[in-house]
Amino acid sequence: MRKFINWTILLSLCLLLAACGNSASESGNESGAKASEKGPMADKPVTILTGGTSGIYFQLGNAMAKVYGEKLGAQTSAQTTGASAENSAKISRGKAEIGFAMADTVADAYSGEGNFVKSGALSNLRAVASLYPNYMQIVAPKSAGVRTLEDLKGKDLAVGALGSGTEIMARRILEEAGLTYDDVDADFLSFSEGIEGIKNGTTDVAFLSSGYPNSGIMELAASDEVEIIPVPQELTEKLQKKYPAFEVGSIPADTYKGVKTDRETVMVNNLLITNKDLPEEDIYILTKTLFENQKDLENAHSSAKKIKLEEAAKKLPLPLHPGAEKYYKEKGVLDQNK
Length: 338
Description:
Oligomer: single chain
Number of helices: 11
Order of helices and strands: HEHEHEHEEHEHEHEHEEHHH
Number of strands: 10
Low-confidence stretches: 1-37
Radius of gyration: 25 Å
Helix content: 40-55%
């Protein structure tokens, strides 16, 4: 009788556990259904390629990842990279869905020029949006005695990560000023490494191509007197004939502590890029969500205030992705017949 009772209890427990398992399984299916309903891109991967952690790409990329996760239910991540050149190459290879890059670097990548001669043209790259301008900001402590581009000769320069958009731009500026890497001590350092080098006395000058204000330069100016070395307008105009993506720009006075006058410099637009093989509807949704939640990007960095829908399809060195094109036509900023 005792054995019978024990077996009865055991059987009851098994039935109870099985019922609980079925209930949990059903509950899991329900949560899965809810997950698919939480957004038009629920559980789809959206990897955003940015740049170094002290750069604006990183700040905006993280803000975008948060927006896409919350609004679309996508599985998002913002990856730190060497920025423009690396991002272009990875997007071309399908290693991420979207990425930030400077227009001049993308132009080289798409046509297989400059640093992309060996790899060949990355003709599967497509534009999502023209964003905000980058300004070449050449910073030095006043104690370094650097006031002009000519003063850079013989100095220790942080020119950006090798092959990055900043490094490509720095090399072209130096060449137009009559200098090569043989005339300077060029170190291929990221933004944060360049600023740290100035602090430590191992670097005289750092090249940083970004929107302004740049957090690294602000941090440096808070503890040391700094100089922003100008790139004269006539030099930029010469560069523009060779590299059409370059434009004349200016960093306003008082952007950085102690810098009381405007500084002429080279300006180049930033783009959001993708691969032509990504689904049209996905890129349409990502583009639409970006502009509908621009305030979130502006809260991450003031440079996002310069992103204008009416300018998003202009000055592009490569074709638009059909998904982005669909959105711009819908909003009336692109001719329906194009």
